[in-house]
Amino acid sequence: MYEAFLFACDHNKYRLIHSLIINVDDQNDNDPWILVPKYEKTILESHPDNNVVMRVVAVDADGSRYNKTKYELARGVNRQIFLFFKIDPDNGDIILNKKLSAKTTGKFSFKVSAVDANKSTESDVSSDTEVVINVDDINNNKPKIEFIKSNRTSDNGLGFEKTSRDRSWWR
Q1: Which sign, positive or negative, has the C-alpha torsion 85, 88, 94, 98?
Q2: CA distance 54 to 3
Q3: What b/e sequence results for 63-101 when a residue is b if at least 16 CB atoms lie within 10 Å of its CB, and e otherwise?
Q4: Are 138 and 43 in contact (CB under 8 A)?
Q5: 32 touches 127 (CB < 8 A)
Q6: Phi-psi region of 76 (alpha: psi -120 to 50; beta: other; left: phi over 0)
Q7: Tell me: the pLDDT tens digits for 129-169?
Q8: Residues 147, 150, 151, CA angle at the centre, nearest 5°?
């Protein structure tokens, strides 16, 4: 909304002041735009289920009536991603669905789309970004202790014994 004032006068005899209000209707002529081309984060495999991992952010230059954005995993995303992650369509939060294991899958890579929520699905124009989630291992396995038979051959002067080991189990 714009407001202007019109002043009219006739050689100081008559003065007229009139207010002019101009309303400009917004059109839905801007598409959402994701601010960052690539989001990357490392989380521990112990990250709790149903908790936010990260948030993808998009902006829409339209006025408040038309600047609503809907977030979704991009078309063509590997179905496995849907097992582990979901996205809140209203705010872009990427949420963990299922426990992770760094030994099974140490890295997830997928695309997220921001779509104009006020446009019909036939005319959707979206902005995409790549999301990479690295999964770090935690020390959640018990140590494996092996006893090795020592054949004392000599004392090396440090109080340690020289031993012979069968290392075939390392291969």
Answers
A1: negative
A2: 43
A3: eeebbebbbbbbeebeeebeebbbbeeeebbbbbeeebe
A4: no
A5: yes
A6: left
A7: 999 999 999 877 777 787 776 665 555 555 555 555 555 55
A8: 160
Q: pLDDT tens digits, residue range 43-94?
A: 999 999 999 999 999 999 888 888 889 999 998 899 899 999 999 999 999 9
Q: Amino acid identity of 79? A: R
Phi and psi torsions of 154, nearest 5°:
-170, 160
Residue type, 66: Y
Kindly report the pTM of this predicted structure: 0.67
Q: Tokens 């426990």 label which residue?
A: 99
In a 13 Å sphere around the CA of 81, the CA atoms on its Cβ side amount to 19
